[in-house]
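Long-time lurker, finally posting.

We've been working with DnaB-like helicase N-terminal domain-containing protein (Kribbella deserti) and I want a structural starting point before designing mutants. I don't trust myself to interpret raw outputs, so I'm hoping someone here can both generate the structure tokens and explain anything notable. Sequence follows.
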Amino acid sequence: MTALHHADSRAEPRDEQAERTLLGLCLIAPRLLDELPLISDHFYRPNHAWWWEQLVELHRHGDAPLSTTTANAVLQADPDEYLRYGGASYLHELHQAGLDDTPTAAGFLADVIRKHAARRQVIALGNRLTQRAEQGEADDLEQMLQDAMDVIETTWRGQLFADRRSPHAPSRSWQPVDLTAVLDGTWEAPLPTVGQRTDGRGLFYPGKQHTVISETEGGKTWFALSAAQDEIRAGNHVVYLDFEDDEASIVGRLLAFGLHRDLIAKQLHYLRPTDQLGTGTHLDDLLHILNTHTPTLAVLDGITEAMVMHALNPLDNADVATFGRMLPRRIADHGPAVVSLDHVVKDKDGRGRYALGGVHKLNALDGASYILENRHAFGVGVTGRSTVKIAKDRPGQLRRHALPSSGGLHWYADLVLESHGHEHADLTIEPPSDGDTGTEYRPTVLMERVAAALTEHGPLPQRRIVTAVKGKTSAVIDALNYLILDGYVTDKTPHEIATPYPPAQESK
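Top reply, 14 upvotes:
Generated this for you. Predicted structure of DnaB-like helicase N-terminal domain-containing protein:
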């Protein structure tokens, strides 16, 4: 489309003010560069196309594309090009144009720019067809029409309906996959690093889809919130999409765990959707959260309710697949572990490993599926307990740390909720324990983390070790005590390495 950029072709459709305003908004709100379905060829003016490419490149490499930063970075890279396309004065003009509008207008402006670009392509196509029809031979007609159809298809799909998930790198999923990393041995298996048991073993895989299913009051929400508090305490962000409860219940539980109000306000992004996601404002809002805060965990609470809200049938496998692509997969593609909370089927004897609805809910997962079975009821002032079993582990990194159980499942953990009243509770995800076989689960992951912290920082008191190591306080202290008992760490305070702790020989 570069050939279509002619400043003196006044008949060509364009809106140069929309282009200036949009570029200015991207200077002020860099997140727009991740969300807008635009490429440089959509811009009419060559200098606007050039500025778009520079902003995208800078943002991709982590440089905040604010006015002064952008100017300095571009000047250092290619001062001649920078001056050719307007320099500091035009950069200032773009910035001022952005101040005249708000980031919420960016989607509308992008649509205007894309549609003008599509119209220019149609006009150019018409001109070429006219010229070929006048000058070409009769036998050339079939090829001419085929070429025209190819251009129209590209314009229709590429200009008017650009992929919002990857505006700068359109999906090419029908091309061969690059196998280099697998063949040369550099590929690494995904590890469950989101959420954790008390021994430091993870619960969920980043960028993968998971389910947690149970009967009512089986503890699935508690299980998800345990991972949520782990991620928030580690400084990460969490998205919670709630289709069946409310913010008072979810936030109240996190407060009961002792999670500080400021951390919840800053790092928990609670959504209570009541409208279908669609492709407009609601999708923009969700993408803004994912791109701005890069959460490590996203919880979808109430899958049946979410599907019904989107006019999809939970019992229909085709609808289950449609919903999976629309929401869980779309979120997982942005990096977080996606955890869907669902109900088991009513028939206890025939439920097997499946949630209520189509079997595709389990078959399509690329992460793990857990089933929670309540052993001791939860309640105020009592200690409740549910068994956490693995129904599916696609990457295969969880079962090695579990015990075999009935029905082809594996016992991975116990969810233990000790209530001390209405406003305080202790929640732990404990490793399985088999007294008959003498199986002992030592917190080897946390032991390695404690040893690494002491190696890096030198002698530390217990409170500093707890601060330095990711994990629940009580579990980190247990890991420290195991290291002391095994002779790897000194008993005196501050603690220091006595003998190097051997790194684990297996994936964590």
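Before you design anything, note these points.
DSSP finds 20 helices and twelve strands in the chain.
The chain has three domains: 2-160, 194-369, 442-508.
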